[in-house]
Specification:
By secondary structure, the protein is α/β, with parallel strands linked by helices. The chain has 16 helices and 13 strands. Helix content is about 40%, strand content about 15%. Helix 1 crosses helix 6 and helix 6 packs across helix 7. The model has no long low-confidence stretch (mean pLDDT about 95).
């Protein structure tokens, strides 16, 4: 098996829910040894975010499906962070780790001696990534932040939906924050490898949401006007939306004037390509309502499959609007092996979605299904800290570990 690019990296993951765990899973897919630290009383919140729930081998309710999405390639330990002995264990683990990821409230780990200043004094080469709703500074820095709140406050809901503000159907801010955090961690590790030591990474969901506004933010900065909601239409490109067909709906993404001419010809309306109202994209945006009405009339005459065939032959990007069962049964998804399973302790085969990073020489690898709660506490403490069975049982009896 190819040696993974991060196989030499040890990650101590103190985060829970989604943004931090998503970051840690990316690092784990790239080979890092990720130790997931959980509360001995209950574990990660997402283990209970259901239904649906997995069933264990006896048929009893186990972890929620939600938990599966962000926790493969990790080992789970349960350590009481409020107990001095638990804090000592985590400090010892941090001392020989490369990365710590945490998403406690700003400053929340200081009282346990697990904040960046405390741990970097022990391990100056430590890359310490904090994930919060609003960051380590600013008037809102002490406020908690969940994905939905940040979608609302960060502008995403103002440009999503039709008649009313609408959140995105997946926790996009959490996921983007996890991806940005993973990139920042890897950048910090590269900087460390050039002799610049460790550093603190301050990731805020609010900042990430602002960055995600991308073209919409640029539109606002240039025009001075906040963009509104456009449903499935695009503020800067026409036609770039879904249309009804005789038997369903079709998503059309015409990205340039040449594609529009091909699109018009495939619809049997080649004259549109020469029409001064539609010839350039800026013209089509200015005359959006007229053109969209014309396109709607034509596409409604035939079925979705017919138009996909005709438009693909013409080189025009388009496709059906699929439900998730259709997504994962689609020939492209099967060809790319987007869905697979991993054996999960006490469960059997657990469903997984592939990491989309396709590196030719060092691809993501899948060594472990998401761990059961506290599955590896004894293993990790023995392996990393030399804790023997008697010492472990004593810690367990005092509720320091589970």
């Amino acid at each position: 098996m190819t040696l993974a690019p991060l196989s030499h990296i040890k990650v101590l993951d103190l985060s829970r829910v989604l943004a931090g765990p998503w970051c840690a899973q990316i690092l784990g897919d790239l080979g890092a040894d990720v130790i997931k630290v959980e509360n001995p009383a209950s574990g990660d919140d997402t283990r209970r975010w259901g239904p649906p729930f997995l069933k264990d081998e006896s048929g009893a309710e186990a972890d929620a499906a939600y938990y599966l999405c962000a926790n493969r390639n990790k080992r789970s330990i349960a350590v009481n962070i409020t107990d001095p002995d638990g804090q000592a264990i985590l400090k010892r683990l941090a001392a020989e780790s490369d990365v710590v990821i945490e998403n406690y409230k700003t400053g929340g780990l200081r009282k346990y001696g697990l904040d960046y200043d405390s741990l970097s004094a022990i391990n100056p080469d430590l890359v310490y990534c904090s994930v919060t709703g609003f960051g380590q500074t600013g008037p809102w820095s002490n406020q908690p932040g969940y994905d939905f709140l940040i979608q609302a406050m960060g502008g995403l809901m103002s440009v999503t939906g039709e008649d009313a503000p609408m959140k995105v159907g997946v926790p996009a801010v959490d996921l983007f924050t996890g991806v940005y955090a993973a990139g920042a961690v890897m950048a910090a590790l590269i900087a460390r490898s050039t002799g610049r030591g460790g550093q603190h990474i301050d990731m805020a969901l609010f900042d990430v949401q602002a960055a995600m506004l991308a073209n919409q933010a640029a539109n606002y900065f240039v025009s001075g006007k906040p963009p509104g909601r456009a449903g499935n239409a695009h503020p800067n490109i026409v036609p770039y939306q879904d249309f009804p067909t005789a038997d369903g709906r079709l998503a059309v993404a015409v990205g340039n004037d040449g594609q529009f001419q091909a699109f018009a010809s495939a619809l049997g309306r080649p004259e549109w390509g020469a029409d001064s109202r539609f010839r350039r994209n800026s013209d089509r945006v200015a005359n959006r309502e007229i053109l969209v009405a014309e396109i709607t009339l034509v596409l409604a005459t035939r079925g979705t499959d017919h138009w996909i065939g005709a438009l693909h032959e013409a080189g025009v990007p388009c496709g059906p609007i699929l439900q998730l069962d259709q997504v994962f049964s689609h020939e492209q998804a099967r060809s790319r092996e987007l869905a697979f399973t991993l054996p999960m302790t006490g469960i059997g085969d657990a469903p997984m979605i592939a990491n989309p990073m396709r590196l030719l020489q060092t691809p993501p690898q899948y060594h472990r299904a998401p761990p059961r709660f506290a599955e590896h506490t004894q293993e990790v403490l023995h392996e990393r800290l030399g804790v023997d069975e008697n010492e472990f049982l004593a810690l367990q009896e005092r509720s320091v570990v589970r």
